[in-house]
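Subject: Retropepsin-like aspartic endopeptidase domain-containing protein structure
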Amino acid sequence: MSGAPHSTTIAGWREWVSLPDAPVPWIKAKLDTGARSSSLHVFDCEEFTRDGVDWVRFDVHPWQESRDDAVTVELPVHDRRRVRSSSGHAEERIVVLMTIRMLDRTMTAEVTLTNRDAMGFRMLVGRHALKQGFVVDSSRSYLGGRAPKPVRRRNRGKE
């Protein structure tokens, strides 16, 4: 995308987003203009080949400390990158392209897959995704509203 976006949407420093490709209807994300790329906390990540193309299969647990509503996702590997975390730790990560829906807008983002157990958010939305028409107001939160209550829990009783 080149040039300025047609319109901008104001977002808070944290928002509830959805990942239609997963499908994950709700996951809490931190919006971080200091981070270049977006990242997602994943479990049981494994690479495989399909028709000569590298793919990755991983689980997403959208709720902190819960396996409720967990989904298994398969996507083509877009890239591999060396990423330095905010703590200074560098690691090579798999990058996938994902659709992110936030504040009634949809964007495509490069998302690195990692372990974010030490972080307070399952997802981080970085500046490359945010420059698709978002301005972050660091004094505000959840401008798109909160996840609906009660949360639909598809996996209840299966574990």
